[in-house]
Design a protein that fits this description.
By secondary structure, the chain is an alpha+beta fold. It is built from six helices and 13 strands. The longest helix has 15 residues. 31% of the residues are buried.
Amino acid sequence: MAVSGDIRVLSEEGDFLLVDKPLDWTSFDVVARVRGAYKRNGAPRKVGHCGTLDPKATGLLILATGRKTKSIASLEVLDKEYDGIIRLGARTASHDTESPEYDHRDLSALTEEGVRVATAPFLGTRMQQPPMHSAVWHNGKRLYELARQGHEVKERKAREIEVYEFEVTAVRLPDVHFRLRVSKGAYVRVIAHEFGELLGVGGYLAALRRTAIGGYRLEGAMSVEGIVGEIARAAATEG
């Protein structure tokens, strides 16, 4: 796995690159930026990503280049770890900050102890329905495309996920800071929404940062521009 200080961006075999995805970038935006850097520097490569991050999430995104793109599936099945913030007392249609708040509720009856114990029911295996604002396909269209057209698909197929750890790290109402470790396919936005529903006040995901994918940590990641710079330097050296 390539990390800062040990990056083989021009390897013919390809490599796995750890990237810290910026806020408001899609995972494909990162892929396109890195792929473009290879092309501009005369070393075109296949580039793919392992495990989508929503635009409003930041943190660890693993890119695969060259022949390593054939190994993407082996990384997509790994557990994911996150730090984030759930904002209580309001809901949003997308379950995160991509859509506006509505249905504001009073939080005066909540206690820190009550917030902390509310994590317990989420641990273990559970069925989770993908949110309407997601990239899941339905009859040839992405769910988020249908959602933006004002349609709701009620028969969205639930999938089995597992929540291994759900720890409240700080309670500063309306914000609840948390750490989460989940299986492949888990939507943290849905967990945030369901957490607010369980507490009876509503809630949505106000911030999310992926800190690990399996044994690969955010601490070893580079910025997008850092990766682009490494590609340019490597091409200049080899040229």
